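Wait, can you check?
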Amino acid sequence: MARMKFYCDAERCIECNACVTACKNVNNVPWGVNRRRVVTINDGEQGERSLSVACMHCSDAPCAAVCPVDCFYTTGDGIVLHDKDICIGCGYCFYACPFGAPQFPAEAAFSTRGKMDKCTFCAGGPEDDHSPAEYSKYGSNRIADGKLPLCAEMCSTKALLAGDADVVSDIYRKRVINRGASAFDWGVNFNKQKLQG
């Protein structure tokens, strides 16, 4: 089976936040929770880069390793999901995740902050596919329809890639090869004489 993964190409991200808006709209995400966010590194300086960040659906997810009630599970496609009916809101997953993916609807003490929420790769949750219970807790289940997450589909520059890890890595590999070739030898790549300076 495929291993589903996200990748954000920092060379293409223009910080438009279309991915964030698409995620919030299609999944009915509550206020105060951001399943996806755009982070800018070196803001306003030379070499500024932006990245769209969410749950990376890790192969060996640290959030699942620290959860005291085992509310996390991994699907056959490698998507890391959680069961809100089991979650106690302890916050261990938030501290374990290097991407800050787990979110809570309220800032409060243990078990009063609400159930944890995170990116589901638009794969819904443990309830029946497309049921009202699934949508109200986890949002849209686009994977069951054979679609990719809406955040990646709405990315105008195709900076955010989602899907089978092998396909995503092939796309990125081709981009890097093309970038390297055009940066080092403009004339050869475009079948023109070398520029003279």
